[in-house]
Amino acid sequence: MFVSEAFAQSGVPAAGGSDLLISVLPFVAVFAIMYFLIIRPQRTAMKKREAMLSNIRRGDTVVTGGGIIAKVTKVLENGELEVQISEQVRVRVLQSMVTDVRVKGEPAAANTK
Predict the structure, then answer these.
(1) Which segments cross the bilayer (predicted)?
(2) Host domain of residue 21
(3) CB atoms within 10 A of CB 83
(4) Which CATH number do you get for residue 66?
(5) Could you give the percent of the chain with pLDDT greater than 70?
(6) Is residue 5, in this structure, part of any structural domain at all?
(7) Number of domains forming the structure of the chain
(8) What is the mean pLDDT of residues 11-27?
(9) Which of 6, 26, 82, 113 has a Cα-to-Cα distance from 102 of 20 to 30 A?
(10) Which of helix, strand or coil describes residue 34?
């Protein structure tokens, strides 16, 4: 209907390869955008967290997932920490439940209200 008879009879193949490229190009573009905006930053954040958790040492002050601020007294081999939350109270915490590590010399952030 839209193709002239001369073009249809000339034996020149239709441009089917460019149609495929045009239909696949948006998917490739969306994947590239998602990679740079979502996947890549998430991987770097995971690596940063793993490095933070692997560098926990005795004497560090940690904040747990429940909001408890404690001082690390012992790093155990099975992914646990022994922390001191009070003068006579020591508890064991999973290392993966630590949300923040404050190094010995680092002061706590001032609460500005």
Answers:
(1) 20-39
(2) 16-55
(3) 23
(4) 2.30.30
(5) 76
(6) no
(7) 2
(8) 75
(9) 113
(10) helix
